[in-house]
Prior knowledge:
30% of the residues lie in helices and 22% in strands. It has ten helices and 14 strands. It has helices spanning 18-26, 62-72, 75-85, 115-122, 139-152, 169-177, 237-250, 268-282, 292-295, 302-316; strands spanning 4-12, 15-16, 33-36, 45-48, 90-95, 130-133, 158-165, 198-199, 201-208, 215-224, 259-261, 287-289, 348-355, 359-367. The strands form two sheets. Strands 1, 2, 5, 6, 7, 9, 10, 11, 12, 13 and 14 form an eleven-stranded mixed β-sheet that branches. Strands 3-4-8 form a three-stranded mixed β-sheet. α2 packs across α4 (115-122), α5 packs across α10 (302-316) and α7 (237-250) packs across α8. The longest helix is centred in the C-terminal third of the chain and has 15 residues, at 268-282.
Amino acid sequence: MKPILTHLGIVSALGCGVEETEKRLFAGDVSGMQKLSGLLGGEETVFGRAPAGESTGGTDFGVGKLVDAAMAEIASALEDLKREFGAERIGAVIGTSNSTMEEFTDNPDRIDMAYPAERLREKWGVKGPVWTVSTACSSSGKVFVSARRLLEEGLCDAVLVGGADAYTRTVVEGFHALEALSPTLTRPLTAERDGINLGEGAAIFIMRAQGEGAVRLLGVGESSDAHHLTAPDPEGLGAEASMRAALEDAGMSAEAIDYVNLHGTGTTYNDSMECKAVRRVFGDRVACSSTKPMTGHCLGAAGAIEAAICYLALKRGRGMPPQVGGEVDKALAPFPIPRVGDETPIRTALSNSFAFGGSNATIILSTVRE
């Protein structure tokens, strides 16, 4: 089955909604990347702040606000689906890494990793199978596998699929302890790259087996290399396996891919291993970029947000998502690097999501060709 992605709701440091996100994405807008102060023993870092998501305490968690902001854009389409199929035939699979952990320091008993999916059941009336996937930074890449399976098995007629993660002080301080945060705007693929910027956001698609829609899910791939708890396999063997599995699932050759959205965190080790893997799979011909300098690394939401970035490019049909920041190290990344103003046609896109523990996911999207 090659299901259709019919609608998208999104919120991130690029703004709220498809129209604002698309405009700022292709302009290379980094204004949503803001300095954090008052943490990290006086050191600074940069965070991708979404225009929604702050927790107000109680049960009104920040991640729920982000889910609601994304859902508001597809609410009318969801109501149409309920009338057509019934709420019991609509499912939801949402990826997250932090969920309600923003409340951790106040009350650890309140952490609920299932909360983003539960929000869809309780507030948005989704009554079919509903669950959350939490595999760190690959969480909302892996959800596309689960959502497709619900359609293939006839358990649902439509599935809400995506990811959501909100600002979490505990996580920011944890990445600082790993010496993984950059004090300035992250610079993936450059010789001067010195770490990640974290971010927050949510992206939720409506997936159907068939119907009207501009973008199709052609393939999904997963791997688990378990090289190290936090460090990737330096040769990128797990990343390579994930990409090859997605190509095989799609029934495509590497030459058929127009664009690769890199996991591209801006750390020394991630960018090195990913570029090695991409070169073994694609050679030096495929256009590649990391969009994290515009969104931050949204952890459990990263896969869905970057799938959404590919979706927007594919719907436009021209212009690869641009790389912003410093000069790319061509010894590291010799492939074509799209920049602001690029108008290259695009019909297929591959997006990578790699996580701690070697949990890897790759999806392939394409414009619909009937």
